[in-house]
Amino acid sequence: MIVAGQTPLTISIAASIASLLLLLVVFELIRSRRLRERYALLWLLTGLVLLALSLWRGGLNTIAGWFGVQTYPPAVLFAVALLFVLAVLLHYSTVISRLADQNVILAQRLALVELELSRQARPDEPAVHAVAAPADQAR
Fold first, then answer.
1. Other CB atoms within 10 Å distance of the CB of residue 81
2. Residue 29: exposed, middle, or buried by beta-carbon count in 10 A (0-12, 13-18, 19+)?
């Protein structure tokens, strides 16, 4: 029997299993070196918080009451999961932005090194031809 304002046991069990699966997948990705520990921290935190809220039905009901959710407390569980996913996405967006900036800097440095090498290889040619030479080789 489902009472309004109570987390159904089946929902708690399903959410606990999903949280455990998330943790297992993250640990496997770390073990196989497809996910670095530093980037896995948010995923591990997400899985642990979701697992705790899934298992602690009274706590989930209390937190739902704080936010005014009276009829279906597991909605708070999904809201927390969404919040953590948004945090992970924001974190990865900052990482990607930083890497994109570093790629631009590296491309510029590589172009300068190629220019210097082409000038050293052909010291008697004018500088205009030395700049065009690496681009012609790429084609």
1. 19
2. middle
Sequential pLDDT tens for the chain (139 residues):
445 667 888 989 999 999 999 999 999 999 999 988 888 898 899 899 999 999 988 888 888 889 898 888 889 888 988 999 999 899 999 999 999 999 999 999 999 999 999 999 887 766 555 455 444 454 4
| Inter-residue contact 119 to 127 (CB < 8 Å) | yes
Rounded Cα distance between 91 and 85, Å, is 10
As a three-state string, the secondary structure of 59-107 is HHHHHHHHCCCCCCCHHHHHHHHHHHHHHHHHHHHHHHHHHHHHHHHHH
Residue the block writes with tokens 């591990």:
44
Name the token pair of 32. 């196989």
pTM over 0.70: no
Q: Report the C-alpha gap between 29 and 85 in whole angstroms.
A: 17
Comparing C-alpha atoms, which of 4, 1, 5 is closest to residue 66?
5
